[in-house]
Design a protein that fits this description.
Elements: E1 15-18, E2 28-31, E3 35-38, E4 45-46, E5 57-59
Parallel strand pairs: 3-4
Antiparallel strand pairs: 1-2, 3-5
């Protein structure tokens, strides 16, 4: 019987956010683990709008979901 040489490689999920309105309309932002969104300068995506809080959201990857 021939040796099974099948190898399974780890999958890397990549995704991005696309702006829908305002200054971010049609801009694409690649997302990495623990991607932070908000008005403060320490965020990965800074949205300087009154309806967005200083630390508005964090996008996280959770294993198994």
């Amino acid at each position: 019987m021939a040796e099974d040489k099948t190898k399974i490689r780890g999958l890397t999920q990549t995704f991005s956010l696309r702006g829908l309105a305002g200054n971010h309309k049609n801009k694409v932002y690649p997302v990495s683990f623990n991607f932070k969104i908000g008005r403060e300068q320490d965020n990965n995506l800074i949205i300087n709008e009154g309806f967005v809080s200083r630390h508005h959201a964090v996008v996280k990857s959770i294993s198994g979901c």
